[in-house]
Amino acid sequence: MKAILLTFLLFYIGTRAGRMFFAFFKIRVGVGIETIIYETGTGMWLLSLLPLAAGALGHCDSSALLTLIFAAAAVCLSFHIIELFQRKHKQIFPARPTAKSGAKDRRSPAWSYFAVAFILLLVAVNIIRSFVPPSMFDSLSYHLAVPKIYLQTGKIEFIPTLLYSNFSLTAQMLYMPAVAANAVETAALTHTVFGVMTAAATFLWTRKRFGYQTALLASAIFYLNPIVGNQSPMALVDLFTAFYGGCAALLIIGDNDNSFESFSRIALGSLFAGIAVSVKWSCYPVVLICGAWWLADSCIKSRKSKTPFPTIGRIIIVAALFACPNIPYLIKNLVFTGNPVWPVFGGRDMDIESASMIMSGIAGFHGLGPRDITHFLRLPYDVLVNEWAFGSPISPVFICFLPLYVISRKHAAASSMLAYSAIFVLFWFFLISPSLRFLLPVIPLLSIVVAITVRNLESRSLSLLCSGVLAFHLFYGASMNFFGGSGLISEIPFLKGSVSQSEYLHNHPAPLGYSQLQWVNENAEENDIVLLGEIFLFGYYLDKPYFWGHPVFQARYKYREMNDSDDLYNALKKDGITLIIFRRGVNDLYVDEPDIPFLDHKARRIWGDFLREKTCVEFEGTVVRILDNPPQTRMCKVSQ
Asked: Of 225-239, 512-526, 615-629, where does mean pLDDT reach its minimum?
């Protein structure tokens, strides 16, 4: 209940803040619910600035942050009451117009009721699954862990052994109240709501131009996509990028006639594109493509209709809105590391060679390998074999409809969205770490293109074929929420209360290392500082101060520059580290070259010497203590 109330409070603040923002700048975009969705998206970004400011000022402990949240809610409620009073007695605020369908559909067919039922069922399932303890790598290693570290220290600071903490943090700032209130479910619920908002924005944008049935089909294709269903109930950030990146494209690549209302759409789309990058740097193609698209479109239309090309003032405004959401994070990195885009070009605690090694290590960790035209041509095969076959924009669900689009009735908006998506995929493959989640900003657009294509097919046989393919896609996507690797069926024991959080996480199939973290929380000494020695150890569940010592995600411990175990010992002692956690036992660690991934031959030998000569075992061979005066017996006194 606490998580639901906190989620409601955050979105209430976001909606009211967005409405005040729209009123102050006289932004007119959409009507009715569409406007409310855009206001909420804007307001949630504004809300994320509150914990960011508190952390920058060094007043970011849990009680102070929650006080700020309740104060913001009180301010929003006060303005809400004033607005209602003015509407009732002075009638200075006219009623909002309601949206009208751009194309009239006949009576809804039977399939539309099934689509609505599927969507509502999936929304309910995702809300329920949001109450399952987080167990996903990204959530536990930085989306939730970074806010927890900031709250523990009471300020936003440089975390040298967690390079992800120096990326964009808008979504993590929205997760800070959840961590502060010990209601982590709020983070997953917030992510779930953004998925619903994206589906709603897709529906409303399409309904205004193509009618109810096309809009419903587009939103169903999006929301019942397996990747969307898999990501929704997790404390991730990818549905934030789907909302902000998708809405930015819909607002900018639509009609642009240089009118005030048209420029309002462009301005809001620019802000949303900037917010998308402030959530995840992999969204920078949204900014590049949208900016170039607007300028090119304006140039073409100004020549055809002799309308004036955007003035320098408008261009500066759009550029500022692109940049504004990212400026705080660029300044933060510049102050902390000397490099606004750390670690790409090195900086504090990292030279260019180390940065190159780490970035290539991340590429290896994600299994990327070389990216050239040969790999691009075999990409559909790789996706079919290794990834969610029906969950990406380069899957059969989308690809099989592209030839049909050529023979169906074309529409300029659909052509624009298709071209935009194709350019984005090229950026994604050649310049971004090609995880399929990073393509979520274009899935709403391609869902609309598919819906338009199917609705415009004149051949009955093709329509039946497409209907069958889409029906399978929707059923497959919905079933993954129930029967997938982390679907509802596997989570029912916890939701029913038959197993505790500790039991659920201890027996989780993902390599969480939860038992080791739990032991340290219960048995470590007051002044212990912990080093996480492997990738699959997630700091969120650790209550002690810790460092992440794995070379892929940090640059502080340059193992390749060490000569022997003494260098490693001195580096760890300099940071006050007393305990090291692994997931492997004594037989795997206390050998000449322990099997620690992403270390070269020399570094493994140094670690092997260090573990044998300068540590003792605290817990089942997976938690070791650094000795103050080595050598000593392998078993610590606590364990004997």
From this structure: 615-629
